[in-house]
Structures are given as structure tokens and as C-alpha cells.
Amino acid sequence: MYFKEHLPDPILRPFVQAYWAAEFNGQGESGHVQSVIPNGCIELIIHMTDDHCFLSREASDRQTSPDYTLIGMYTQPYEVHFSSRVEVFGIRFFPEGISHIFGIPPSEFTSTYEDSTDVFGKVMADFCEQIRTTIAVKDQLALADRFLLKQYEKNGKDFDYVQLAAEYIRTENGMLDQEQLMTHVPISTRQLQRAFKDQFGITAKEYMRLARMNAIQKYMHCPDVNFLDLAYDHGFADQAHFIREFRHYTGSAPRQFMKDRKRFIVNV
């Protein structure tokens, strides 16, 4: 798998984590399957060729992914199936970025995927088509910056308590409790819980768990990682708790995950 990230314009960085270009299933194997680990973000995936992957919605049969796929914020791993090489350009949004840039709460597509043109309309279709027909990466990045900055000028909010809370959770890698969070957000616990759920589709506590798992995943490429130390450093009561949490978000125990690393797609 080829994967390369690029930073957006500084104005967009509170809302867009990265632009990225990737090639999946480079050998073109039929029946190739990878599991995507949830990262607390939302992905816009633009297929650069007519070769697509296959996705499922809950219990439905697998379907060909839309040309311009919007992947909502998942809280458990999901499978992507490939029958050929797939080349994509992606934009990874922090969840509040969707609200600030497009004026739409990400709760509308939590734990599912949508055709981005159904969600955002013709303006998104036109932008994605421009990206798809642009060859040079630097030109794709410039197009993305211009488009998102223009949308942000139209839809950006002056202040957002949910954004403030989400940023603090990420800064602390999810290693805080509700009381600590509330010392940084000047509204009541009930107001924040309701606003977080309304905007993100998940609770602040669930988002903390996702942020902590992201921090853990940054160590999982190290061959000599010490799981006891990793559990302790990330606030788990014991190794058993760490293993249960890791299995919840990856579908695999930590050691098996390390052994089968190529089966997983991890973007953090």
C-alpha cells in the first residue's frame, strides 16, 4: 500500500487534519480485504480511476463505493474489499471541520458512508471532478485549499464549544475524565453532552476513547513495543482492560494485530 500525507493551508488546520494520496491493493489481487481502524475523523475519498473498493452499510450486501465517498466517523472497525488496484485522493476532516466548512453536522452520517455529492450537492461534485482530472499533486493540493477556504468563508462559525472540547480531547490524547474536560469548556456538563451528541453523533466519552486509541496506534508500528508500558502510559487500569479496549476498536488482540499488521488500514 502506498500512502502519503500533506498538510492543508494553516487556516484550515483546526478543521482538516490532512490531505492524502494512496494506492490500495497495489498487486491487483482479487478478493483482497483490509480492516479500517476508526480514528475519530471523517474522510472524503475521491477515486482517481474507475476502479473502486466495496463497502457495506450495516447488514446490507457489499456495494461499489461511490466515485466521491464520504466516510463518517466510525466507532468500530469496518472492512474494505478490493478486486483491483485502487488509487485515491483523500481529505481527512476533524469532525467539527464538517460543520465549520460545510455547515452540516457529521452526526448525519456517523458510522456509515454516503455519496458526498448527495450530502453536499453539485459544488462537491464539481470540486471532486477537478481533483480527479488534475495530474500534479501540488495542483490538487492548491485546488483543495481554495475550495475548502471558500466553503469556510461561507459557513464558518465564530465560536463553538464542541470544537473547543474536541480540540482539548485530542491535545490530551483522550486521557482525561469528564470533570477535567469541563474545566476547559465554559458550559454545563449537560449542555456539552447534548451538543456533542447532536453534532458528532457520539458522546464526548466515546470521542475520548477514540482519541486515546489514536495515540496508542502511533506506537503499534514499533517491533519492540512493550504492551505493559503502553497500557500504563495511556491510563488503563491493567493490561486486561487495555486488551479489551484494543480489541473493541480493532477486532484483534494487540499481539495478533502486530503480526497481521498488513491486514489493517490505520490513518492517525
Keywords:
alpha+beta; 11 helices; single chain; six-stranded antiparallel β-sheet; 268 residues; five-stranded mixed β-sheet
Structural overview:
This protein is an alpha+beta fold. It is 41% helix and 19% strand. The protein contains 11 helices and 11 strands. The chain has helices at residues 95-102, 116-120, 122-132, 137-155, 161-171, 178-182, 189-200, 204-217, 227-233, 239-250, 254-259; strands spanning 2-6, 16-24, 32-36, 42-47, 53-55, 63-64, 68-71, 78-82, 86-93, 113-115, 264-265. It has a 6-stranded antiparallel β-sheet. Strands 6-5-8-3-11 form a 5-stranded mixed β-sheet, with no helix packed on it. A hairpin with a 7-residue loop joins strand 5 and strand 6 (63-64). Helix 1 crosses helix 4 (137-155) and helix 5 (161-171) packs parallel to helix 8 (204-217).
Mean pLDDT comes to 94
Query: Poorly predicted ranges (pLDDT <50, ≥5 residues)?
Result: none
Number of strands: 11
Widest sheet, order of strands = 1-2-9-4-7-10
The N- and C-terminal alpha carbons lie at a distance of: 16 Å
Structural class: alpha+beta
Number of helices: 11
Helix content, binned percent: 40-55%
Estimated radius of gyration: 19 Å
Largest sheet: 6 strands, antiparallel
Oligomer: single chain
Give me the secondary-structure topology.
Blueprint: E1 2-6, E2 16-24, E3 32-36, E4 42-47, E5 53-55, E6 63-64, E7 68-71, E8 78-82, E9 86-93, H1 95-102, E10 113-115, H2 116-120, H3 122-132, H4 137-155, H5 161-171, H6 178-182, H7 189-200, H8 204-217, H9 227-233, H10 239-250, H11 254-259, E11 264-265
Parallel strand pairs: 3-11
Antiparallel strand pairs: 1-2, 2-9, 3-8, 4-7, 4-9, 5-6, 5-8, 7-10
Helix pairs in contact: 1-4, 5-8
